[in-house]
Amino acid sequence: MPQICILTAAPDYFEDLSSARANYQRLLGDDIAFRHWTDPGDLAGYDLVLPLLVWGYQRNCARWFALLDRLEQQRIKIANPVSVLRWNSDKSYLLELEKAGVAVVPTLITEALTAKDIAEAAQTFGSDELVIKPPISGGADGTFRLQKDQPLPEEIAGKTMLIQPFQPAIEQEGEYSLFYFSGAYSHAIIKRPATGDFRVQEFLGGSESGTDCPPGAQGLAVQARQAAEQILGTGTLFYARVDMLRDPDGYFRLMELELIEPSLFFEHAADEGASFRQAVLTRLA
């Protein structure tokens, strides 16, 4: 049996990985290895390394990018490739996708956030309510929902940040995620925040459920994935989760293209993840 390693969060990471680990063992066998991304040791002996559980990498960016450099230098067989992981680590990729014609949630980037930036963004977007987040982020770390006249939180003042107009659909309908393995569509879910919140993460009270893929969603998802492949000059991405919601006019817009460590929600897939397993076996062959 080929040797497979899945990179996981650091030992002190606060979220419970046990369910995710059990799912990967169910699909890929009990003999797959799990190693912490912060200290993975020698990975050269593995036939395939998957960074699917490197949750929290945004909290130690220097170490994360150093690991990517080492994986690249040692030519470790990793999927998605290091070039994809490095590009996808910084959400400024949204501007590249927008330039390529993908409908993204409108996004501005400021190198040192000020109240003036907030006021100007509100005017540009025609929105009095904004979402502010770091370009390298995950799990809603450092993400704020602000009215245009609110004082800047100290945690983000003067820092490089992304600014987006708040999308009411996150509360009214939810956020859709579509999943692709080796370019083939697998399943879709819809995620909703807890009442009074705008963040959909489960540890913040959010919830998710399986759903049929709504009309228009797959077109955007395929366009975003293929645009990334063209920008990066890669073949078909091994796995991709495409997060989107409807804008106030009812059109889908890309929120994020998750190519590093997305939760894959196999429990909502009709095949319970069999297509992911087949994609792994095909890649190994």
What's the order of the H and E elements? EHEEHHHEHEEEHEEEHEEH
Strand segment tally: 12
Overall pLDDT level: 92
Rg, nearest Å: 19 Å
CATH class of the largest domain: Alpha Beta
CATH superfamily of the largest domain: ATP-grasp fold, B domain
CATH topology of the largest domain: D-amino Acid Aminotransferase, Chain A, domain 1
The class by helix and strand makeup works out as alpha+beta
Protein model, in words:
The protein has 3 domains: 4-78; 93-103 and 170-284, D-amino Acid Aminotransferase, Chain A, domain 1, CATH 3.30.470; 108-166, ATP-grasp fold, A domain (Dna Ligase, domain 1), CATH 3.30.1490. The strands form 3 sheets. A 5-stranded antiparallel sheet has the order 10-9-8-11-12. Strands 4-7-5-6 form a 4-stranded antiparallel sheet, with helices on one face. The chain is built from 8 helices and 12 strands. The mean pLDDT is 92. Helix 2 runs antiparallel to helix 3 (82-88). It has 285 residues and is an alpha+beta fold. Strand 11 (239-246) and strand 12 form a beta hairpin.
Report a brief summary of the structure.
The protein has 285 residues and is of the alpha+beta class.
Q: What is the fold's blueprint, element by element?
A:
Layout: E1 4-8, H1 18-28, E2 33-36, E3 48-53, H2 61-73, H3 82-88, H4 93-99, E4 108-110, H5 115-125, E5 129-133, E6 144-147, E7 161-165, H6 169-172, E8 175-181, E9 184-192, E10 207-210, H7 217-232, E11 239-246, E12 252-258, H8 274-284
Parallel strand pairs: 1-2, 1-3
Antiparallel strand pairs: 4-7, 5-6, 5-7, 8-9, 8-11, 9-10, 11-12
